[in-house]
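sorry for the late reply, my laptop died twice this morning and i had to redo everyting from scratch. anyway the thing you sent over, i finally got around to it. pasting the sequence first so we're on the same page, its 1070 residues, then the predicted structure underneath. double check i copied it right bc i was rushing
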Amino acid sequence: MPKRTDIKKILIIGSGPIIISQACEFDYSGAQAVKALKEEGFEVVLINSNPATIMTDPELADCTYIEPITPEMVIKVIERERPDAILPTLGGQTALNVAIKIAEAGVLEKYGVEMLAANPAVIKKAEGREEFKDAMVAIGLKVPQSAIVHTIDEAMAAGDEIGFPLIVRPSFTLGGTGGGVAYNRQELRELSLSGLDLSMTTEVMIERSLLGWKEYELEVMRDSKDNVVIICSIENIDAMGVHTGDSITVAPAQTLTDREYQEMRDAAIAIIREIGVETGGSNVQFAVNPVDGELMIIEMNPRVSRSSALASKATGFPIAKIAAKLAVGFTLDEIQNDITRETYAAFEPTIDYCVVKIPRWTFEKFPEAEDVLGTAMKSVGETMAIGRTFKEAFQKGMRSLETGRAGFGGDGREDLAHLEHDDLAHGLRSPSSKRYNFVHEALKRGMTIEELSALTLIDPWFLYNFQQIVAKEAQIRQRGFQGLDPDFLKGCKEYGFSDVQLAYLTGTGEDDIRGLRKQQGLLPVYKLVDTCAAEFESYTPYYYSTYEQENEAARTERKKVMILGGGPNRIGQGIEFDYCCVHAAFALREIGIESIMVNSNPETVSTDYDTSDKLYFEPLTREDVLNIIDLEKPDGVIVQFGGQTPLNLAVPLEEAGVPIIGTQPDAIDRAEDRKRFQQFLQKLNLRQPDNETVHNLDEALAACAKIGYPVVVRPSYVLGGRDMRIVYSDDGIRDFMKLPSIAEAKHPVLVDKFLKDAIEVDVDAICDGRIAIIGGIMEHIEEAGIHSGDSSCVLPPHTLSAALIEEIKEASRAMALELGVIGLMNVQFAVKDQDLYVLEVNPRASRTVPFVSKATGVPLAKLATKVMLGATLEELGLTREVEITHWAVKEAVFPFDRFENVDTLLGPEMKSTGEVMGIDDDLGLALAKAQLAAGSQIPQSGTVFISLRHGDKEHIVDAARRLVAMGFSLLATRGTAAVLQASEVPCETVNKISEGRPHILDKLQDGAVAWVVNTSLGRRTTENSYTIRRAALELHIPYTTTVSGAVSMVQAMEAMRRTPLGVKPVQQFI
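ok and here's the structure:
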C-alpha cells in the first residue's frame, strides 16, 4: 500500500527533558522520524521542550514548538497548526500520556485530527494493566498471577491472596516509576501509596514476583497489511527483579534453545496483533523460568521504546524511521533497507556478532542514596559495545563506561581482595552498580559456577564466560611480558583484554604492549554492521573492531576529519555534547570533508548510521582511538565537542603525533592549569577570586586561613562539578580532603574564595583567531555557588546594566584572542557589587551551546567546525553579535524522586539529568513555560509556606508582598514570620517540626500548602529543612530552594495573570 495522500501535515510529540528512564534515545528516534516524513513530502510540526536535542533544531521540522509538553500546550499547537494527524509513539511515555489526555478531552475529534500508529484504545489495552492481562489470557498466553487495585485496601487484600514477595507496578508510568518489590505488608502499603499517587489512572497492578526468572525482550514491527517482523532479541544478564534499563543486556539472546526462541517469537507476533498496534514498533518483555522453561508475558510497550534505540544500533535496522513510514501507509515490503539497498524492511535482520549494553550510574552524585538496583530504574545513561564473542563485547563495554575501568578486572582498580566471605556473598546477592566487581572477585577466589549462580541468579552460561576471562587473566599474570607470544596475545585480544589490562598484569606500560602488538603485526580489523550477516553488500560504513583476519573498513583518499564523541550519558556530560558532535558532522558534509565519528553511546543521533560518512562504534580510550587513527590516518581530530571524554584524550593523542583541529591542547592546559591561568588573567588585567592550589591537608588549611572562609574546593580536571563543595570551616576542609576521590587522586585540589550572593554569568563565544563573537550571555537566576548546569538562566541578561554587559563582552573577546581559541569557548563570570570576576574559562563546547543556538538562531557548533577547518567568521557571515528581542529561559530537571533520602538542595556539584527551555516575548511567561516544561506546577491560589536561612529573610519581603497582592495567604516559621510581619506583610506562624505539633509537616500532608519556599545553609543542614523539602517532593508540592528562584516564580505567576500562555514556533523567534 503506497503512502497516504489524505494526510498533509503531521504533529510529532517529543519526549521532553532527559530524565532517568527517558533519555536521548527519544531524540534519536524523533529526529529520525522527522527526517523520514519530510523525505516523503509531509509537512512536519514538532512540539518538544528540550533545547539540547537535534530534534528541536529549527532546520529539522517545518515548524518547531519548544514548548512544555502538557495537554494544554499541545492543544494550543493543534488549534494554531490544524494538523491532519498526530504521531505520539516516538516521544516515550510522555507523548503517549499527553496524546491519551487530549484524545479523551475530545480535541482530536473536534479538529478532525487522526492519531497515527496506535489509537487510544490500543494504548489503553497495552498500558492499562487489567486490559493487558485480559488480552493475554484471551490468546492463551500466561501472565503472572495479579490483581488490579485502585485503593490501599484493595492492594492489601490482593497481597494476602497472592502471597509475598510481590511486584508493584503502577499503570502509565515510565521506567518502573513508583514500583518495587514488596516482601511484607508494610512495604506493600508504602509502594501502593506511592504507585497509586504516580499513576495517571490511579491504578496499580499487584503481581506475583518472578524474582530469579530470566528476562528477555523482543523488538517487533507490524504494518497495515499485518506483516510482522522481529528486529532483535535482547537478553538481560541480571535476572528478574532488576529493571531492564539497569540490567546489562546482550543481543542476540544467548541462552535460549531454538524451541524457546520460536515460542517467544510466536507469542510476540500474537501479542502485537491482539493488542492491535496498527503500524510501527513495539517492545515485548518476557520472563522464562530457568528450572522448567515456563514462559510468562511481563508487559508490552505499544511505541518506540528505550530498547528500540539499542536494537536499531545493534542491528543497523532504523526502527524509528521505518515506524514513521509505516504510520503513513507504507508496508514493510515497500520500504528499502538503506544499508543493503537491496533488501526490504520485511527482511528480518540477522547479526553475526554479539552486542552488550551496560548501564551508566551516577550514585556518587547522591551519596545519601543506597546503591541497590530494583524494579525502578536508576541509571542515567548506557554504553554499547560490539564484538565477535560475548567475552570481547563485554570487556569492550566495561572500558567504554568511562568509570576508570579498563575491562572486567585485571586493571588494579576497585580491588576487593580484603572482603570477608559474608560481605562478598552479600555483594553478589544484592544487585548494585558494583555487582560485577564482586563476581570478578568470587571467580578469582575459585567460587564454583553453581554457587555463584545460586547467589546472583545469573545464568551459568554468562558466569562460565566470566570464568574464562578470569582464568585468562591468571595466565597473563603467570606468563609475564616475555610470555606474550603471538598466539597467546591474539587469544587475549580475542577475549577483549585492553592494552591497559595487559600492561597492568605484566607490570609494564601501555606503550610496551602497543609496541609489541605492532611488532607482531597484531592489529584489530573492522567489521561492518550490515543487518544481514554479510549476506548482501553494505553501503553504510558502520564498523566495530575485532581481532580476526579480514578487514572490511576501506580508507578513502578524501580529506577526512575524525570527531570524538562523549561516550555514555551521565550527570555532567549529556546530550548537549552529542548535539555539538552531530553539528560537526553536518558542517563537514557541507564543506565536502569526510567525517568519521567515534562513539560508544547507542542512544544518540551521533551514532546513527547516516549522521557521518563513517561511524566507528568503539570505546573512547587511547588504545581504541589510536587503532582507528592508524587505519584511517585522518587530517585532523576534533576533541572540543564531546565534553571531558575527548578532552582527556587530547594530550595523549597529541603526544602520539595526531593533529588536533582547532584550539590547541596547550591552550586548554593554559585555561585548566591554575598557575598558568592566573598569569593569563593578570596579563589581561582581569580579576579572579583569591585562590590557591593545594596537594595535601596542611596546604589546604593554610590556604583557607589566607583566603578566608567560605571557600569553594574542587579537584582539577573534572566536569559537572564532581566532588565540588562550599566549605565554611577547618572541619569541612578535613572532611573534604578525606574523600576517597580526593585522597587517591593524582591531580591537585583547587581552593577559591566563595563570592557569596554574587550573580553568575555564562558566556558562549566563537573565535577564528582574528575576531571573537559572543554567541550568548546568560544570567543565572540562582546565586553563585550552584553549579551552572543546575542553575536556571535567562538570555539575554535581565538585571545587568548595559555597561556591565559591555565589560563582559570585552573581557570574553580578549580572553578568546589571548588563548588563541579556534572554535568555541565558554566563560563563567561572577558579578559582586558591580565588580566582574572570572571564575573559569573552557576553550571548548559547553553544555549551553544548543540552548544559545536555539535562542539566537546561530548554529554555533556548525560554524565553529567550519572555523576550525580554516574558514573565517567574516566568510561565514558572522561579524557581529545577534541581538534578540525575546526571552529564553533554561531550567534544569532533577532525578531526586528516583533516590530515597536525597536532599533536593542545590550546590556546586551538578545533580540535574536534563534541561528544558521556555521561550516567549514576555520574560514572566518564558519563566512560567520553563517551570511547566520541567514538570513543576505554577500555583494559582492557596497558601505559600516560607522558611528561610538567616541571610535570605530580608530578600523575600518584596516577593511576599506581591504574593499577598495576588490573593495568596502566607505561612512562615517564627524567624521568617517576624521579618515579614515587621515589614507589614500579613502571614501566619507555624511550628517547625522540632517545635511540636501541629507543625509544618502536618500542614503539607493535609494538602494545605500550594508552594514551599525553603532555603538552608550549606550541605544537608538541619533535619527540619531536609524533611520539609523531601516531603514537598514526595507530595508533589512545588518547592523552591533559593530566594532568587522564588522571586522568578512570583514573576511567572504575575505574568500568567496578565496574559494567557500562548505558543509560537521557534522559527518565528529567530
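The mean pLDDT is 91.
thats about all i looked at so far, will dig more tmrw
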